[in-house]
Amino acid sequence: MKHYTNINDLGNLQKVVQEAMELKKNPLQYKTLGEGKTICLLFFNNSLRTRLSTQKAAQNLGMNVIVMNFGSEGWELEFEDGIVMNQNKSEHVKEAAKVIAQYCDIVAIRAFASLTDKEKDKAEMVINSFKKYAGIPVVNMESATGHPLQALADAITMEEFKTTHKPKVVLSWAPHPKALPHAVANSFIEMMQLQNADFVITHPEGYELNPEIIKNSTIEYDQKKAFDNADFVYVKNWSSFKNYGKVMNTDSSWMITSEKMKLTNNAKFMHCLPVRRNVIVADEVIDSENSIVIQQANNRTYSAQIVLKKILA
Ligand code: SN0
After folding, report:
1. Would you call the peptide bond into 211 cis, given omega within 30 degrees of 0 as the criterion?
2. pLDDT given at position 227
3. What are the two backbone dihedrals, phi and then psi, of residue 50, each rounded to the nearest 5 degrees?
4. Among the four residues 78, 162, 263, 274, which has the most C-beta atoms within 10 Å?
């Protein structure tokens, strides 16, 4: 594997999930693989799990790690070609990417969607510019349209907690005061499309995600119906895709409550975190035994580690 920017870069998802679970049993079994190699983690946005788990994963493989909060500490980058740079942007990605590539062997990047320019976000300008100009492997730590490290961690977590061969998995939208990106939901859907599962997406009308990602996945607008007999309830807010980046609905009746969880087959509750308590999910659900958000976050390390291992190998 050269780059990891989409869940499909993994090839065989099930096989990689098994490999990650093996790695988890003894995370230091490849501790010399990355000796003498350096990874640069570039953050254009905030992070907790991604930053710490990716750093931990690299260290477990013996790598050196350089972290830069590019969004607040780097020069503001220009990505457009042929532009007169007489405004606020100080450096072009053409130089920045090539320079960074001289200091490290892998570059991992977090750059959220603008949520203002659909076409630019779809073009994945940041990730693709680094791919084009850096000439070293690029890892997506949440880009405009995807968060494949999260989706792989989710796949590992479901494999650990599933009790039937073909579980019912529900991706449910829930309300949020801010406009959030589509990335986590997109990658979760792409990952679920590779699984043997009964997969249902539920959200209010107007919250349809990119049809190029949804493909044939089932949408059920009645959240309660969707929850019927579910084994996993995966919750995420996203802003409107059609009415790009807009918050159309903050209807609290979409919040995940224990009442709704009773409709399921004793489902596990999942969320990528950070989560707004009592907006997205009621305390009683996230604090219940069925909540596996902490275990899910733990798997971020093994998700990142198996990806870095494959790139190093
Ligand atoms: C990000 C998102 O893509 O939804 C990162 C998730 C891993 N989440 C947020 O920005 C939440 C911010 C908030 O204020 O709740």
Report:
1. no
2. 98
3. -65, -45
4. 78
20 ligand 1 Cβ < 6 A: no
The residue to which tokens 């510019």 are assigned: 129
Percentage with pLDDT > 70 across the chain: 100
- pLDDT tens digits along 251-262: 999 999 999 999
Question: 66 in helix, strand or coil?
Answer: strand
CA distances from 153 to 102, 188, 193, 282 (A): 30, 10, 15, 23
Q: pLDDT, tens digit, for every residue of 205-239?
A: 999 999 999 999 999 999 999 999 999 999 999 99
Q: State the CB neighbour count (10 A cutoff) for residue 281.
A: 26
Please name every residue paired with 92 in a beta bridge, in sequence order, or none if there are none. 78
Model confidence at 71: pLDDT above 90: no
| pTM of the model as a whole | 0.98
89 lines ligand 1 (CB under 6 A): no
d(CA 238, CA 240): 7
Residue 208 in tokens: 């349809």
Minimal CA–CA distance to 102: which of 133, 134, 126, 65? 134
Q: Check: CB of residue 268 under 8 Å from CB of residue 295.
A: no
Kind and range of the H or E run holding 219: strand 218-219
Top mutation candidate among 43, 112, 143, 180 for ligand 1, by most atoms within 8 Å of CB = 180
